[in-house]
Amino acid sequence: MSTANKSIRVAVYPGSFDPVTKGHMDIINRAARQFDHLIVAVLNNTNKNPLFSVEERTHLLRTVTKHIPNVEIDSFQDLLVNYMDYKQAHVIVRGVRSITDFEYELQIASTNHKLNSDVETIFMMTNPKYSYLSSSIVKEISSFHGDVSDLVPAEVDEALKLKYTKQKQQ
């Protein structure tokens, strides 16, 4: 089959990534092997009060994914299905850690499919060694100067230390 006729499979992995964890990285690495182009899209959720700004989160993601050639880091502040249209993507990638995650993600996937029937959601089970891991847990441990070096990429560990040191000084 000629490459001119081959459609490019583009997927979007949306999330807050505040901060990106090794669990997120596991999904990014695995999804990047499944699609021609993977967009890791940082949600700018105005209802949340994130530790890191959107710019900081996208910078950290670019740093920790620079070795994956088919990964693009972006951000958005719209309905995900609108962003999918804009990026000409048809697959949403979601990591699932538990039954509770799945129930929530299934509701969101069904809603997205209702809003745009061309959009499909693919669920990837989190590697069991990261099944307990969340950005909230990482932030809580790090805020008390606990060791999160096994939970996040080294660059994120450093960014967390800097962020909490600056907050303490203020």
TrEMBL record:
<keyword id="KW-0460">Magnesium</keyword>
<feature type="binding site">
    <location>
        <position position="24"/>
    </location>
    <ligand>
        <name>ATP</name>
    </ligand>
</feature>
<feature type="site" description="Transition state stabilizer">
    <location>
        <position position="24"/>
    </location>
</feature>
<feature type="binding site">
    <location>
        <begin position="95"/>
        <end position="97"/>
    </location>
    <ligand>
        <name>ATP</name>
    </ligand>
</feature>
<keyword id="KW-0548">Nucleotidyltransferase</keyword>
<feature type="binding site">
    <location>
        <position position="16"/>
    </location>
    <ligand>
        <name>substrate</name>
    </ligand>
</feature>
<keyword id="KW-0067">ATP-binding</keyword>
<dbReference type="InterPro" id="IPR004821">
    <property type="entry name" value="Cyt_trans-like"/>
</dbReference>
<protein>
    <recommendedName>
        <fullName>Phosphopantetheine adenylyltransferase</fullName>
        <ecNumber>2.7.7.3</ecNumber>
    </recommendedName>
</protein>
<feature type="binding site">
    <location>
        <position position="94"/>
    </location>
    <ligand>
        <name>substrate</name>
    </ligand>
</feature>
<feature type="binding site">
    <location>
        <position position="48"/>
    </location>
    <ligand>
        <name>substrate</name>
    </ligand>
</feature>
<dbReference type="InterPro" id="IPR001980">
    <property type="entry name" value="PPAT"/>
</dbReference>
<comment type="similarity">
    <text>Belongs to the bacterial CoaD family.</text>
</comment>
<comment type="pathway">
    <text>Cofactor biosynthesis; coenzyme A biosynthesis; CoA from (R)-pantothenate: step 4/5.</text>
</comment>
<feature type="binding site">
    <location>
        <begin position="130"/>
        <end position="136"/>
    </location>
    <ligand>
        <name>ATP</name>
    </ligand>
</feature>
<keyword id="KW-0808">Transferase</keyword>
<keyword id="KW-0173">Coenzyme A biosynthesis</keyword>
<comment type="subunit">
    <text>Homohexamer.</text>
</comment>
<feature type="binding site">
    <location>
        <begin position="16"/>
        <end position="17"/>
    </location>
    <ligand>
        <name>ATP</name>
    </ligand>
</feature>
<dbReference type="GO" id="GO:0004595">
    <property type="term" value="F:pantetheine-phosphate adenylyltransferase activity"/>
</dbReference>
<feature type="binding site">
    <location>
        <position position="80"/>
    </location>
    <ligand>
        <name>substrate</name>
    </ligand>
</feature>
<keyword id="KW-0963">Cytoplasm</keyword>
<dbReference type="Pfam" id="PF01467">
    <property type="entry name" value="CTP_transf_like"/>
</dbReference>
<dbReference type="InterPro" id="IPR014729">
    <property type="entry name" value="Rossmann-like_a/b/a_fold"/>
</dbReference>
<keyword id="KW-0547">Nucleotide-binding</keyword>
<comment type="function">
    <text>Reversibly transfers an adenylyl group from ATP to 4'-phosphopantetheine, yielding dephospho-CoA (dPCoA) and pyrophosphate.</text>
</comment>
<feature type="domain" description="Cytidyltransferase-like">
    <location>
        <begin position="12"/>
        <end position="140"/>
    </location>
</feature>
<feature type="binding site">
    <location>
        <position position="105"/>
    </location>
    <ligand>
        <name>ATP</name>
    </ligand>
</feature>
